[in-house]
Amino acid sequence: MERTFLAIKPDGVQRGLVGEIIRRFETKGFTLVALKFMKVSKELAEQHYDVHRERPFFAGLVEFITSGPVVAMVWEGEGVVASARKIIGATNPLTSEPGTIRGDFGISIGRNLIHGSDAIETAQREIALWFKDDELVSWQPHLTPWLKE
Ligand code: DAT
Ligand code: MG
C-alpha cells in the first residue's frame, strides 16, 4: 500500500494548528501509520532537504526546521502521495489555493506549515530517514468498507 511522509513544521506547531492539520488527512480517509513529536537535528534536516543543498535558501530552511518541535507522520492509502500534496497546496502559501492547508493558513514561502513527499520514491526515502521499521504500525481501520467498495 502506498505511503507518504508528512511533517508539520515548527510554525504549524507554534500556531496551534497540529489538530487542524492532522484532521484533514484523517477525515479524508487516509490511514495513520506513524506519528512522533520531536526536535529535528541539523544532520536530519540537512539529509531531508539534501536536494536543496545548493539553493540560496538552504541554510535558512535548515535553521527554520530545527528551530522548534515538529510532528513527523506517515500516512497510507491509494494515491496518498499526490493527494496529500493537493491537500497541502502549492509551495508558496500566497498563491496556494484556498481550501488547501497552505492556502488557508499561510502567507509566506518560508513559513508554509507542512512538508509532504513529492513522489512515491521520495516518500520511501523520507520514511526510512525519519522512522525505524518498528515505528511503522500496520493496522486495518474498521472504517475501510465505508470509505471504498
Ligand atoms: P515543497 O515543500 O512544496 O515540496 P520545495 O521542495 O520546492 O517545496 O522546497 C522545500 C521547502 O523550501 C519549501 O517548503 C519552503 C522552502 N523554499 C522553497 N523555495 C523557497 C524560496 N524560493 N525561498 C525560501 N524558501 C523556499
Ligand atoms: Mg519538496
Structural topology:
Blueprint: E1 3-8, H1 10-14, H2 18-28, E2 31-38, H3 42-48, H4 58-65, E3 70-76, H5 80-88, H6 101-105, E4 114-116, H7 120-130, H8 144-147
Antiparallel strand pairs: 1-3, 1-4, 2-3
Bound molecules: 2'-deoxyadenosine-5'-diphosphate and magnesium ion.
Describe this structure in words.
By secondary structure, the chain is α+β, with helices and mostly antiparallel strands. It has helices spanning 10-14, 18-28, 42-48, 58-65, 80-88, 101-105, 120-130, 144-147, and strands at 3-8, 31-38, 70-76, 114-116. It is built from eight helices and four strands, in the order E-H-H-E-H-H-E-H-H-E-H-H. A four-stranded antiparallel sheet has the order 2-3-1-4. The model has no long low-confidence stretch (mean pLDDT 98). 2'-deoxyadenosine-5'-diphosphate binds next to loops.
Give structural attributes.
single chain; 149 residues; alpha+beta; four-stranded antiparallel beta sheet; globular; metal ion binding; Nucleoside_diP_kinase
Tally of strands: 4
Structural class: alpha+beta
Instruction: Please tell me how large the radius of gyration is.
Output: 15 Å
Strands side by side in the biggest sheet: 2-3-1-4
Portion in beta strands? 15-25%
- Cofactors, ions, other ligands: 2'-deoxyadenosine-5'-diphosphate, magnesium ion
Give a summary of the structure in a few sentences.
Keywords: ATP-binding, Cytoplasm, Kinase, Magnesium, Metal-binding, Nucleotide metabolism, Nucleotide-binding, Phosphoprotein, Transferase. The chain is globular, with a radius of gyration of 15 Å. Strands 2-3-1-4 form a 4-stranded antiparallel beta sheet.
